[in-house]
Amino acid sequence: MNRFINYLDRKIGKYAIPNLPLYMVICYGIGYLMELINPDICLVLSLNPYAILHGQVWRLVSWLLIPPSSLDFWTLIMLYFYYSIGTTLERTWGKFYFNYYIFSGVIFTIIGAFCLYGYDVLFQPEQVIGWNEGYRLVNGEFPWIYGMEYGYALESMSFSTFYVSMSIFLGFAATYPDMQILLMFILPIKVKVLGVIYVILLAVGACSMGLPTGIFVVGASLLNFILFFIATRKGTHMSMAQRKRQAEYKRKVKSAPSPKIAKHKCAICGRTSEEYPDLEFRFCSKCEGNYEYCQEHLFTHQHKSRM
After folding, report:
1. What values do phi and psi take at 283, rounded to 5?
2. Alpha helices (H) in 54-180, listed in sequence order
3. Mean pLDDT within 99-120
4. Cα separation of 111 and 106, whole Å?
5. Which DSSP helix (H) or strand (E) runs through 219?
6. Peptide bond before 212: cis, by omega within 30 degrees of 0?
7. What is the residue-wise DSSP string for 256-292?
8. 262, exposed or middle or buried, with CB in 10 Å at 0-12, 13-18, 19+?
9. How far is CA 172 from CA 125, 135, 183, in A?
């Protein structure tokens, strides 16, 4: 799989989006603004496979505008945190590898949504019908623009950018496990410890959704993290430019001539037999120690003493 990623890097790496974390934050900002204007807008933007198959194809992309959580002070802090670690990963991996990591998470999330829809159609249609009938009894027909079927619209809200953002932190924790951050600006904690806590919380969240919904929602969204680090487990997630510089450095080191060690060196002027092959060098018998001099300083130097 690592060869496949490297192949993509060579072929389409030049089209990778630079500064992708900034664009992600901008999308979240647009989503928050739309929620302020119309709190029900998420039902129109959500990743609803039933609605997509019935013509609302914009949902394949529009769900990326749905922010990972409600807007408050701590959400702003978290967005800044994810932007910071996202830019760090982009500089470390290179823009193509970071693009691949994020967009593979998006694609796996879409696949997971359609898999859950297929599971509902094949194995639990009665449950979806019950959700629809319950909504009709209270509110009447579900609006077409929201997806026509309340049951599928309800499940589609489980798929959001929350888990894609979470995968960014897990990628950061796997890349910099020993880095220390201040939890709540007070408690120092290593990133790898916080990463383990995140994984536990994700597992609890998946179980609380019930099976198989939790597997499709959480598992599909984080599949990019698992596959990416299996493919790059030897630390090969570097950009093409980084690999090129590394290869050039190794080639220069390999082709560089090995330095020659001089056989003779004057203790006064520092000239060597390699630099001046015609110069004669002699040891002085009156100096205490192994002191060697060129022919110009052999008789004019001051004798060395150990005292």
Report:
1. -85, 145
2. 59-62, 73-93, 95-123, 125-139, 150-156, 162-175
3. 92
4. 9
5. none
6. yes
7. SPPPPPPS-B-TTT--BTTT-TT--EEE-SSSSS--E
8. middle
9. 40, 42, 16
For the cut 90, the answer to whether the pLDDT of residue 50 exceeds it is yes
Per DSSP, 94 falls in state -
Which of 205, 51, 216 is CA-nearest to residue 123? 216
Q: What's this model's pTM, rounded to 2 decimal places?
A: 0.73
Two tokens at 40? Answer: 């029900």
- Residue-wise pLDDT for 11-44, tens only, equals 888 899 999 999 999 999 999 999 889 988 989 9
Residue 173, exposed/middle/buried by CB under 10 A (0-12, 13-18, 19+)?
buried
CA angle 72, 78, 84 (to 5 degrees): 140
